[in-house]
Write a structure and sequence with these properties.
It is a single chain. The protein is of the alpha/beta class and 612 residues long. Helix content is 35%, strand content 24%. The strands form 5 sheets. Strands 3-2-4-1-10-9-11-15 form an 8-stranded antiparallel beta sheet, with helices on one face. Strands 5-6-7-8-12-13-14 form a 7-stranded antiparallel beta sheet. Strand 21, helix 12 and strand 22 form a beta-alpha-beta unit. It starts with a strand and ends in an 18-residue tail after the last helix.
Length: 612
């Protein structure tokens, strides 16, 4: 959710932290704040709104210093405001903290601290934590590292924190549990961030702090220990991220850039994993479980948001080709009931960030019940790949736009490969059939490029519907998850109320909403449900609805009965989601731009949901 950047070293810290916070605004942008230490003392600057507001606010202030920490907030406890912005201070104004996460028992702790004479300025749970650390340090007469360790052993919840002590300016303390934190290692300097995007231009080597680890960071030294006080030898990894991946590359928005990156990202997802000529799939991340996949009785897919829609697509594919029953669960619901899971089940957890709190909690429940857990994730070094038994990276590259686009198609590509792979292991597909499917899959990136060429057509349609207040998206079979995802994209970034439905379910309620003001987007490609979808279109037109149809190139029949057509190339039904979603992403994008919405940072949303 929130974004964290810290620096200690020989460079001027302010430019590093500000630039890093801007790169992390996709994680939180309700407010921003920075604390900095220099030879003249300590300064703290906080402002509601975006990082640019903070820059303007401090333009004539002393921003020098070589130790600093900064934060972008996505509000949980307390509304966005200057006073609720991070950093927050201890009661005596000596200690300062920035925090991503939620302290669940903050109310109880706050009441105890109030009884001890503490006074609080904000409505946040974060301020309670720094007061608690101050209280423990004062009572026990211990150093700050030990006080932080003891305090974190008493709190319940998730956190990634950085702490600064104005009386010990040559150190920072960082810790994490349930929220990501990475430490960049330089020569005589260290960087701290929620992810690697703010620090990739300065260093090559990083440490991904693990859950329940705490770090003491100085300019020339790093100490990492667990909360049980056992010193750790951290694993140093080399970053794979490239700086140019974090720039817009001439596009107006990151979202548009990422939509246009999908031919490349889908290709990268398949690279080295398919041999179309021989009809073979190799998924090295789950290779050791090949025998288990032959005999599994059930697959459960757990995910949230866009990843859940990808999971629904996976359900269609796996059941169709591997003939294994699949259940798709919202991770947020799965974790709060008593699901029936056995050691015979495989649970597939899908998350772009690899840090989704609900999905991680659901994984732990499934592991406790003996299931084998596979992860599908985009971010190397994130938590989910570490806590699952095996898995597959999507290799989509960084996704900065809050509304997920290329991550969805990459997840669907992996699920398609997984469906074919399991079918291959079980002998459910002949070599000739698999060869045919893989040959066509290999052509999908080029077909996505063809769909992108319809951008101007889609932009014109967007101009016609931009003032709509509601919109329906309809699809059948694997087109239904596409309809759900298309509706989600529109509501996320344009703030138009939109819902996705199975086309046949329209008659069971939503049809009451249709009138001449209602756009209805229909996935109407030539597949096994084609004739049924035509009937659904006629039902909408009979009630004067505005129909936008996603059709197979060359389809003249549907063109005659709808208001607008967007053509996509002909393809096997298995690959419909990878093509049909592209025009829906573009439609949502152009509607949002025409409505003057902030496409990359839609209101109230954050990229990575690391809290409940």
């Amino acid at each position: 959710m929130c974004g964290i950047v810290g620096y200690i070293g020989f460079r001027e810290a302010w430019p590093i932290v500000v630039k890093g916070l801007k790169r992390l605004e996709y994680r939180g942008y309700d407010s921003a704040g920075i604390s900095i230490i220099n030879d003249n003392g300590f300064s703290i600057y906080k402002k509601a709104g975006k990082v640019a507001f903070l820059e303007d606010f401090t333009r004539n202030q002393d921003r020098s210093g070589r130790v600093a920490m900064g934060h972008t907030r996505w509000a949980t406890h307390g509304e966005p405001s200057d006073i609720n912005s991070h950093p927050h201070s201890s009661n005596d104004k000596r200690l300062y903290i920035i925090h991503n996460g939620i302290i669940e028992n903050y109310a109880t702790l706050k009441e105890e601290l109030l009884n001890r004479g503490h006074q609080f300025e904000s409505d946040t749970d974060t301020e309670v934590l720094i007061h608690l650390i101050e209280e423990i340090q004062g009572i026990e007469q211990i150093d700050l590292l030990e006080a932080v360790r003891l305090a974190l052993n008493t709190v319940i919840g998730a956190y990634a924190i950085v702490i600064m002590d104005r009386e010990n300016p040559d150190q920072l303390i960082a810790a994490r549990k349930g929220s990501p934190l990475v430490i960049g290692i330089g020569e005589g300097e260290y960087f701290i961030a929620s992810d690697a995007t703010p620090i990739v231009e300065y260093i090559k080597n990083v440490i991904y702090l693990k859950d329940n680890e705490i770090a003491l960071i100085k300019r020339d030294a790093l100490l990492v220990k667990r909360l049980d006080n056992v010193i750790q030898t951290p694993l140093i990894q080399e970053l794979e991220l490239k700086l140019e991946e974090l720039e817009k590359g001439g596009f107006d928005h990151f979202m548009l850039k990422e939509i246009y990156e999908q031919p490349r990202s889908v290709r990268d997802c398949m690279r080295g994993r398919i041999n179309a000529e021989e009809g073979k799939i190799e998924l090295g991340g789950i290779k050791e479980y090949a025998d288990k996949l032959k005999n599994i009785e059930r697959i459960i897919i757990i995910a949230c948001g866009t990843s859940w829609h990808a999971g629904l697509t996976g359900e269609y594919l796996i059941e169709e080709y591997a003939r294994i029953p699949v259940e798709v669960e919202y991770a947020s619901e799965f974790r709060y009931r008593n699901p029936i899971i056995t050691e015979k089940d495989v649970v597939i957890a899908i998350s772009q960030s690899g840090e989704t709190a609900d999905t991680m909690a659901a994984i732990e429940i499934a592991k406790e019940k003996g299931a084998t857990i596979f992860g599908i994730c985009n971010v190397v070094g994130s938590s989910i790949p570490r806590i699952t038994h095996a898995g597959v990276y999507t290799h989509a590259g960084p996704e900065i736009g809050v509304a997920s686009t290329k991550a969805f198609t990459a997840q669907v590509t992996v699920l398609t490969l997984l469906a074919f792979y399991i079918a291959q292991q079980k002998g459910m597909l002949t070599v000739s059939k698999l060869t045919s499917l893989l040959t066509e899959l290999d052509s999908i990136p080029d077909k996505i490029q063809t769909v992108l060429a319809t951008n101007n057509v889609i932009k014109n349609i967007a101009a016609k519907i931009k003032d709509a207040r509601n919109c329906l998206f309809l699809g059948r079979g694997s087109g239904f998850p596409v309809a759900l995802e298309g509706a989600l994209k529109l509501k996320e970034i344009s703030y138009i109320h939109a819902e996705g439905y199975p086309a046949a379910e329209m008659k069971h309620g939503p049809i009451a909403l249709i009138d001449k003001e209602m756009p209805v987007v229909v996935i109407a490609t030539k597949n096994s449900s084609y004739e049924k979808v035509i009937s659904n279109i006629q039902e909408v037109k009979a009630r004067k609805g505005i129909v936008i149809a996603i059709v197979t190139a060359g389809d003249k029949e549907i063109e005659k009965m709808v208001d607008y057509c967007i053509e996509i190339p002909d393809a096997d039904e298995a690959f419909l989601p990878l093509l049909a979603i592209i025009p829906l992403q573009l439609l949502a994008y152009h509607v949002a731009v025409l409505r003057g919405c902030n496409v990359d940072q839609p209101r109230n949303l954050a990229k990575s949901v690391t809290v409940e």
